[in-house]
């Protein structure tokens, strides 16, 4: 099965413990059950593993790894508009006459394939900031309504 999220894409987590956090896809793991992605980013949950030293020079200890998230729990972030979006596909004919299929943003129509890693990181940071601002705004409004009801 083909998936719309690839390594290097900026994504935001839309469900689960890490909802609202964003990062960049390090790895896409495909299996019979479905696909999972490993997202590296600030504040994402990690798994702790004990590693035994394999030689005299290596150190053992507890190592933290980013955990895999189900692919349905992340949404790609468009680098052009900076918003979480669904992925569309468009087919264009290149100069050589061959058809080329590319991923596009459903909101603004910008291409998602011709993106540098720097643009993807800045897009992920923008969405993370807006997500945290909206969360704090809802918390403040909830506090105000609680105080007014007393």
Characterise this structure.
With 150 residues, the protein is of the alpha+beta class. It has one domain (10-52, 60-144): Roll (SH3 type barrels), CATH 2.30.30. The chain is 22% helix and 34% strand. It contains 1 helix and 9 strands, in the order βββββββββα. It has a 5-stranded antiparallel beta sheet with strand order 6-3-2-1-7, covered by helices on one side. Strands 4-5 form a two-stranded antiparallel ribbon. A two-stranded antiparallel sheet has the order 8-9.
The gist of it:
It contains 1 helix and 9 strands. With 150 residues, the chain is an alpha+beta fold.
- How can the largest sheet be summarized? 5 strands, antiparallel
By CATH, the topology is SH3 type barrels
CATH architectural group: Roll
Strand order of the largest sheet: 6-3-2-1-7
The H/E string reads EEEEEEEEEH
CATH top level is Mainly Beta
Helix percent reads 10-25%
Radius of gyration: 20 Å
Protein structure class: alpha+beta
Shape: flat
Q: Please indicate the percent range of residues in DSSP E strands (runs of 2 or more).
A: 25-35%
Number of strands: 9
Query: Distance between termini?
Result: 55 Å
Please work out how many helical segments DSSP would assign: 1
Poorly predicted runs are none
Please, how many domains?
1
């Amino acid at each position: 099965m083909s998936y719309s999220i690839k390594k290097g894409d900026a994504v935001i987590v839309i469900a689960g413990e890490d909802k609202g956090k964003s990062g960049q896809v390090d790895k896409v793991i495909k299996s019979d059950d479905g696909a999972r992605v490993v997202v590296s980013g600030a504040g994402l949950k990690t798994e702790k593993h004990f590693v035994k030293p394999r030689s005299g020079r290596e150190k053992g200890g507890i190592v933290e790894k980013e955990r895999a998230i189900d692919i349905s729990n992340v949404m790609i972030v468009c680098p052009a508009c900076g918003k979480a979006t669904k992925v569309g596909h468009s087919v264009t004919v290149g100069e050589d006459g061959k058809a080329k299929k590319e991923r596009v943003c459903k909101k603004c129509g910008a291409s998602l394939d011709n993106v540098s890693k720097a643009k993807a990181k800045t897009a992920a940071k923008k969405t993370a900031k807006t997500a945290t601002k909206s969360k704090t705004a809802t918390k403040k409004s909830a506090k105000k309504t609680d105080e007014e009801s007393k």
